[in-house]
Amino acid sequence: MKKRMNLLLMGGSLLVTLCYVGPVAAQISLELLNPRGEIESPATLAPTARVTDLAGKRVGLYWNGKVGTNVFFDTVEEMLKEKFPTIKVSRYAGAFDLGDALAGKIAKEVDTVINGVGD
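Now predict its structure.
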């Protein structure tokens, strides 16, 4: 009963407020502001064009040291060389985040890279 009475009082208060504010509401404008301020999007780079054919290409295989991925890459390299006999495969290893220096080195040495994670 108490809950119903509270709801009735709230509804009545809302009705009285709407009736009182109704004609004035057309004159009110509200501006909504984001409390975090303006957030600029980080700069992005367009993706590099895909290599359409691997024949005669230089392919890098990047292993981040996870157990099992090196064995996986042995099979990938074997399959690539079987399908594309003129392919040249280079192997690289390092941390998950290879960093700018190693990424730049790899970019100069190969046409495309396959990165594997062993989890």
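The two ends are 59 Å apart (CA to CA).
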